[in-house]
Design the sequence.
């Protein structure tokens, strides 16, 4: 039997060799995946990546292949590629526990702490999904997220839970949880408890250098700096190849003005580890501030020793940039970008710096091309996206700028720089509502943010919340009250309240403390207009326009001066605006004002809007205004054609698709609106898009069926977690049509706690009617002031009164 078995193996082997050259059986996706796992286990990441790509070629929806691609990218330090792959894996397999934990790890790494905490909290409530090993991975991610959110007491509670759940024999997992507990205790300033736990960790693992570093940090926070330098020197002896200890010691010396000692320690370590770029760069940075000539000579020496070292090339480019030598910096970076040896992360960094140089040189188009290329390889790199948004803004490519800024925010929800950029773009586009909401978010994160405060006051004034605006202005420090910005906001408040004499006094004070040139003349003109001094106001507005002929607000002021003169002077202002547009075809606000005045004197404004979008193809709001004008004139198809024309210039632009969808709904072309919403859903997870689409599906009899209701349920599933009444209302209404009356009632009642909106009340009334709950229905209808409602609202509520159950 044994011989037969061996012979059989030999025979199969021989046959395999004999036919292998002419026939090779194709592996399945699963076989490719198993092969990739084997290569990964052997640390052969290049071959693992090839097999994973082969697996996806056979089956594009194989979540495990994306999961292992993320692990491979992580080994190569390609964090952005790993992030993209793990997100794709989770989309394909949302119930896979290993994938969920790894995705949450990346959310912590990319500062999406709320998302990570929510995911791990949900997962840990499902013990049937978790093995002991997965508990050991999930709890540290949850705790790291809570620490990132500065929820330190909750982090400590989760540590205690984790210590009970994790296998008592898993020393590594227990050690990691205790280390995280030390971090939370440190942030809570419970230093004695933290030190006690640190000492226990060090006793269990005397060679744990991280525990020693925690001890040093906590002692320093307590004000005990004795022994820190000696401890760092001891660590340098214990682990001579670890650069962070000499770097930390040199930093301490430098911060304490002991520059020679910092240079000495770095030079010593550089001699011991001549290929360590981090130490070389630290040495160069210290010397750059103390002895620039020596730093430059030493950099050249280092580059001779390590000519292909990317860290040193980056440093040289940075040195040139700091010296404003843009051309030389660009040349250094260009050679780096062209290098085939760069990994994807380093290449992205080089492309980012080179694009920054090109932008500084005024070569925005070249910068945009370079960034497009960089993002094709690193599509989720937040730094690349942020820079492309700024370059696109320079080029007035607002659709790209807004999309990229929002992409950054999807990764880093509380990134103030990305929020500033988004708010600025909304301001440029004239979307004051979204601009205000964005800066409101910034204000929550940074209460002293100057522009956010300024816009917050503007919004309070706009909403006529004058007392709140006054309280906010009064809450600033005495030093802030001396600033021109504070005085301007105070002046705006007085003008909004029509307190013209006080406003005039405030303007006098502002003229003495700030140099605002023609802008002060403009404000003086508005005060004169408010006081009824029309001739004086007109003269001042004209004075502003002599200095700033493109300042549309001054034309708007003139329009206000002449609006009561039977249109004669309005026509004159229209002529002025036409001349301004002729001289400056990109003066977008001029078109809007000209159209407004044309309508006020009974003229058709279509030609003005058409001219505006012809000369400003990126003026998205202009297309909407033109479409609205066509609709106002009863030309429905012409309005639709405006959006079609706009979408030729801006294919798949979300603002245009959504605006056109709303137009389709208005003219009852519901299937066309549905097509737009389906396209929008492939691009964005926008709450507004999903809200509007769900309502279209359930409110339109021609579209409403079992399939469309299921779709509405699917796309509004997460609305139940929001605190916005509009989305809660939609969720409840969709659940009504889906037949879940209990969920519908609960959600609509929650929504009514935040609003008295009639739609919410009507939807809840329909739920009561379907439940045959006559008493609740009668109570709701009784509380309505029916006779005071608009006629259409009266009709629909009265219809419910007559259809109550017997």
Sequence:
């Amino acid at each position: 039997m044994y011989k037969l078995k061996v012979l059989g193996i030999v025979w199969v082997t021989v046959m395999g060799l004999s036919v292998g050259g002419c026939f090779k059986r194709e592996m399945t996706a699963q076989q490719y995946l198993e092969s990739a796992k084997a290569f990964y286990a052997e640390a052969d990441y290049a071959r693992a990546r090839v097999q994973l790509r082969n697996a996806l070629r056979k089956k594009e929806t194989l979540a495990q292949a994306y999961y292992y691609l993320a692990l491979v990218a992580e080994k190569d330090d390609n964090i952005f590629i790993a992030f993209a792959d793990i997100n794709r894996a989770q989309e394909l397999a949302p119930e896979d526990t290993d994938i969920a934990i790894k995705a949450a790890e990346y959310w912590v790494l990319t500062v999406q702490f709320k998302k990570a905490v929510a995911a791990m909290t949900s997962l840990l409530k499902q013990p049937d999904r978790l093995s002991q090993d997965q508990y050991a991975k999930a709890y540290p991610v949850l705790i790291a997220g809570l620490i990132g959110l500065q929820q330190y007491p909750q982090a400590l509670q989760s540590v205690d839970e984790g210590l009970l759940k994790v296998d008592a024999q898993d020393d590594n997992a227990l050690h990691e949880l205790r280390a995280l507990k030390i971090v939370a205790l440190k942030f809570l300033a419970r230093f004695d408890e933290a030190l006690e736990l640190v000492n226990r960790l060090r006793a269990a693992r005397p060679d744990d250098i991280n525990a020693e570093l925690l001890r040093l940090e906590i002692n320093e926070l307590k004000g005990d700096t004795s022994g820190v330098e000696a401890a760092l020197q001891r660590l340098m002896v214990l682990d001579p190849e670890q650069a962070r200890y000499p770097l930390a010691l040199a930093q301490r010396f430098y911060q304490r003005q002991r520059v020679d000692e910092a240079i000495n320690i770095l030079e010593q370590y550089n001699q011991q580890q001549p290929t360590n770029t981090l130490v070389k760069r630290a040495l160069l940075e210290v010397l750059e501030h103390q002895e620039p000539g020596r730093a430059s000579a030493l950099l050249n020496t280092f580059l001779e020793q390590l000519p292909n070292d990317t860290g040193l090339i980056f440093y040289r480019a940075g040195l040139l940039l700091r010296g404003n030598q843009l051309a030389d910096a660009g040349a250094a970076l260009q050679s780096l970008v062209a290098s085939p040896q760069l990994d994807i992360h380093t290449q992205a960094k080089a492309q980012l710096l080179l694009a920054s140089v090109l932008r500084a040189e005024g070569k925005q188009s070249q910068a945009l091309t370079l960034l497009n290329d960089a993002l094709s390889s690193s599509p989720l790199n937040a730094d690349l996206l942020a820079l492309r948004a700024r370059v696109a803004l320079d080029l007035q490519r607002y659709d790209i700028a807004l999309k990229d800024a929002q992409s950054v925010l999807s990764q880093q929800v509380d990134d103030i720089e990305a929020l500033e950029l988004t708010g600025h773009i909304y301001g440029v586009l004239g979307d004051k509502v979204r601009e205000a909401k964005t800066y409101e978010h910034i204000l929550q994160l940074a209460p002293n943010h100057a522009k956010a405060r300024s816009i917050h006051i503007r919004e309070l004034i706009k909403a006529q919340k004058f007392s709140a605006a006054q309280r906010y202005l009064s809450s600033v420090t005495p030093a802030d009250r001396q600033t021109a910005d504070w005085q301007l906001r105070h002046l705006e408040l007085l003008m909004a309240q029509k307190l013209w004499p006080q406003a005039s006094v405030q303007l006098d004070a502002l003229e003495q403390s700030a140099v605002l040139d023609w802008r002060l003349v403009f404000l003086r003109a508005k005060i004169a207009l408010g006081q009824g001094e029309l001739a004086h106001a007109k003269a001042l507005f004209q004075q502003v326009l002599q200095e700033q002929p493109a300042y549309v607000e001054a034309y708007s002021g003139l329009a206000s001066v002449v609006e009561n003169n039977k249109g004669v002077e309005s026509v004159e202002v229209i002529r002025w605006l036409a001349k301004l547009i002729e001289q400056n075809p990109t003066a977008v606000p001029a078109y809007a004002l000209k159209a407004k005045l044309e309508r006020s004197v009974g003229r058709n404004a279509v030609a003005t809007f058409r001219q505006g979008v012809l000369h400003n193809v990126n003026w998205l709001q202009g297309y909407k205004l033109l479409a609205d004008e066509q609709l106002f004139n009863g030309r429905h198809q012409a309005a639709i054609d405006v959006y079609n024309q706009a979408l030729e210039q801006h294919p798949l632009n979300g603002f245009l698709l959504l605006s056109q969808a709303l137009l389709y709904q208005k003219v009852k072309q519901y299937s066309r609106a549905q097509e737009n919403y389906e396209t929008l859903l492939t691009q964005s997870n926008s709450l507004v898009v999903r809200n509007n689409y769900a309502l279209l599906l359930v409110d339109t009899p021609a579209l409403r069926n079992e399939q469309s209701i299921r779709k509405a349920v699917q796309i509004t599933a997460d609305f139940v977690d929001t605190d916005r009444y509009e989305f809660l209302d939609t969720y409840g209404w969709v659940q009504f049509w889906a037949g879940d009356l209990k969920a519908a009632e609960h959600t609509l009642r929650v929504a009514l706690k935040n609003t008295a909106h009639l739609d919410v009340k009507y939807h809840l009334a329909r739920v009561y009617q379907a439940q045959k709950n006559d008493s609740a229905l009668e109570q709701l209808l009784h509380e309505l002031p029916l006779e005071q409602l608009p006629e259409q609202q009266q009709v629909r509520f009265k219809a419910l009164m007559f259809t109550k159950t017997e």
